[in-house]
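Exercise: predict the fold of this chain.
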Amino acid sequence: MSKFTRLQVLGPVAVFAAVFVAEAAAFALSQFPTSEFLWRVNLELFGVFQKSQYLLGPISAVPFSQLLVIALPLLALAIYGLLSRRELALAIASNLSLVYTAFLILAGMSWRPHSLAASAAGIAAPVSSAGYIPFVLVAVSLLSAAIAHAGYFRRLRAENLPG
């Protein structure tokens, strides 16, 4: 297993870390509901996780559902693939972390108000820090998934070379 193969674990680790911190912030807010700082953190920084929680439907009834149902299994699959040298498990985890981060962006976009007139404001870059977390996760997960695909393309090319 090359050092680039080990980088595939970055996507699932980043997703797990972000979801863990978001769930911890939500739990802290439930314990201290009068904290202005925790309200700001939850609404401005981790609001996209709350919006995605609403879209998950029945899963959202489980406490810490994004952590237990999505992020933890992704991390477990990535660690399993890394420790057992199963590149397919690692590639699946890295690709699913990219899918989840794309879901986060779509969840965040689906809660924005829509107007009837088309404008460039609907596609503008996020101004607050809340919009940057999913994009950082996408960048890390995209790198992770690209490394997985590059490894498979390299192996396919080596198997199909004449000689």
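Check your answer against the key: The chain is about 70% helix and 0% strand.
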